[in-house]
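Worked Example 4.2. Consider the chain below.
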Amino acid sequence: MSGHYHAVVWIDHHEARVFHFSASDSDEIVIRPKDPVRHIHHKANSIGSGHASEDQDFLQRVADAVSDAGAILVTGPANEKTELVNHIGRHTPALKAKIKGVETLDHPTDGEVLALARKFFRDDHQEPPRVQ
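Applying the procedure from the previous section yields the following structure tokens:
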């Protein structure tokens, strides 16, 4: 898709921002669930946890958006980042092996997401393979 080796995802239950990037440039994709407003209510004497089920289509579209990356960082403020990692592990285990880290990150700007990801991969020496 992008030609960049690294990707970072910032995700919550309202949207996912996916960046494919290098040291000097980036491409962004924004993915939104079909129903971004999920109300979670638990009524007295009702069966079930009261939690809305995860939007599997949304998670799969995010997974598809990073499928060509060589190394992935997943970020976000709460549980959706973990749900994404678990979804990828269940449906595309080979892609899960490319996830190099999961970081909690509240609601950053696009520049802050990219700065964190560039630092993460630089500090962890996650460089793309060199072409001979």
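The chain has four helices and five strands. The chain has one domain: 6-32+54-123. Compare this with Example 4.1 before moving on.
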